Amino acid sequence: MKKLFVLAAALLFLSACSMFSPVKSETPTTYLINAAPHPATQKTNNSLSLLVNTPDGNPVYNTTAIAYTVHPYQIGYFVKSAWAETPAQMLQPLLIQTLRRTHYFHQVGSASNLSQYGYILNTHIIELEQDFSRIPPLLHFVLSVEIINASTNQILASKEFNTYELITRNDTYTGVVATNRAVARIMGQLASFTVKTLEQAT
Length: 202
Known about the structure:
Blueprint: H1 2-20, E1 29-31, E2 49-52, E3 56-57, E4 65-69, E5 76-83, H2 87-100, E6 107-109, E7 119-131, E8 138-149, E9 154-166, H3 172-201
Parallel strand pairs: 1-5, 2-6, 2-7, 3-7, 4-7
Antiparallel strand pairs: 4-5, 7-8, 8-9
């Protein structure tokens, strides 16, 4: 009887532990890229409209999987972490928001909400990965840009933006924070480059 009592108590204890323990989710934790800077304003009364296309890019980064590397020429993806959307899908609204904040343009938008425009901004994600082959590890973000005259299809200017951001700990979240810092820096540089290019062209 004592053995049965002990066994019953043990089963009850395990059942209670299971009841009050947090449920383990099989879904990966999702993260956002949403850092939009406040660039220097260039208030004007011009009528320039800019179409911002969704970035294209290397198929390696055209996924919700978060990329990392531990050896040169090798790429991996975190299993328990993912982007909420692909980097390209998250970058387009940030580009639009950042360029609107310059107050230089009459309109800035995507193809879905801009029917007429004089200029086009095309971007290409070349690299976006957490690099643990370095000590300390770094987030590497490379974005190329083209500014096009919509009426002539002429490329007015192109540039490749390249930045590294320190990852202070070996975990995904710290890498995500570094990604947002890197994106904000390049968004600010891209906004200044775009305004300067169109000032010279108009």
